[in-house]
Amino acid sequence: MDASSSSSQSLTFYDFLDRMRNPASLDLVRSIKSFIVSFSFSTANPENDGKRLQDFLLTMEASIRDHPLWDGASEEEIDSAIEGLEKYVMTKLFARTFASSHEDAKIDQEISEKIHLLQHFLKPEHLDIPEVFHNEASWLLAEKELQKINAFKAPREKLLCILSCCRVINNLLLNASMSENRVPGADDFLPVLIFVTIKANPPQLHSNLKFIQLFRRQEKLVSEAAYYFTNLVSAKTFICDLDAKSLSIDETEFEENMKRAKLAITGARMGPPRALHETAALVNPLARMCDKATQNELSPILDEIVGLASQSDPGPSQGMEGSETNISGGLPYPFMEAEAGELTIEDVEKLLGIYKDVVKKSSNGRMKNDYKFMTLGGCCYPFTETEAGELSQLTIEDVV
Amino acid sequence: MGCSSSVPSKSSGLPGGLNSDNGGMVDAKNLRVKLVLLGDSGVGKSCIVLRFVRGQFDPTSKVTVGASFLSQTVALQDSTTVKFEIWDTAGQERYAALAPLYYRGAAVAVVVYDITSPESFTKAQYWVKELQKHGSPDIVMALVGNKADLQEKREVTVQDGIDYAEKNGMFFIETSAKTADNVNQLFEEIAKRLPRPSPS
User: Fold this and answer.
1) Which residues in chain B touch residue A128, judged by CB atoms under 8 angstroms apart?
2) B4 or A125: which carries more pLDDT confidence?
């Protein structure tokens, strides 16, 4: 799987921004800007939007191939320019294109709630996962990779989260099989992926899959990447349609378990506050509100923080940590893994501090110029002058 | 729940041509081919593929070994190459409804059964009918009776396999992933049957 290129890819995004700053690329910058503007003004229509983006990337690829700045460039350089372009454009258009319809948000919610119920009782035996593949540590690692999916906005990086998850599962299957002298295949892989997906309950699963399908460069969503992507689509479909007959479980037992899980959740909702945190994401009304906010309007703030602080790819966790220390010189960014729904009012002050810090750093260093380009689409840092004392006036949407 | 169709079909509204789903050919001399493996769980689908991938001795070929996705390039006599991208599918009954997600856009389908298991042969026939109804119209199909080394336990005759394949315009072969018998022949034969882009 395409992981070896991770570190080099984060460099090439800078390289892309660098070239875009070159006066010679003014014509390209104009095309990009005008695409983003015209896209932002038209009404959302996912399928059509996907086609528009794909067409635009193809057109730009042709322009870049003919462009003096890329004169004599290798295929690889052209390719990373288009990767940079995809990342740039989709980061700009994220709020407009991700989970943009009410229907998508509703499906996300339904899947997440169903998984939440299943988590209460589902065991590997229900999917006939052989004992030899029971490995809590590997499963947890795979879950973590999948849960990172919302830390990224670029389709390529979201896809890499899925591939990393699948790679962990593959390694588990291959290692466990070695001692058993058996050959693992899809018969073993898919059940484990489904189980891991249920354990992970990845945020906005449906919207993330749809987003990747529509906006990842079509020539990149092929071969191995397409295969593992299809497996997660498959896992999602299985979970959506799942009933007692899908599992090795007695039908009445299944119904009773589902009923009990529902009761446990509603019980927690009514119950004493200490029970709340266990199911916070599902029951806490604030969390729900925030979830909605994430779906509808994605923040410029987190956007920029994520954009600047994590230019590196998802995937191997060391990569993520590496990029944090890289930019901050050791200062941690505690919210990198946070979901909007998990934030409390108390976090706002800390978040604002980090945010200012990131902006300051970016204005001092070489990123100053990137920032200039990043603002090309009209986005800026609206809160740098805000004092923590004014926080009471900030709405929760500002945080999100 | 209404979410099974939430991901739009890949071919809808997306630019065709470039690495299209249909076999994804690169150029006339170097084909890239999506091959989907179907068959009951336990018939040895992944064993056949592993045999094929490990059995090639070209040290220059890049081999991707996953648990369920593998790719392997074969060089043919006419100096063309075919890169097989092999998509394994879960054969358990509970995943049968998911198969269309995998065989969509496949240029080749290899349907495998176990010669010692009549149930797996029935299942293979189910897959063939599925593919005829919902697969690409020009898909190349192969019917494979695996575990040919277990002659003493055979329950599906060679003739049954031949007859069924012939009736359905498929290529038929019996293999043994265990002894590697006929495994390379299977993929070479498929490579020969692929529709070629006419040289321009």
Assistant:
1) 92
2) A125
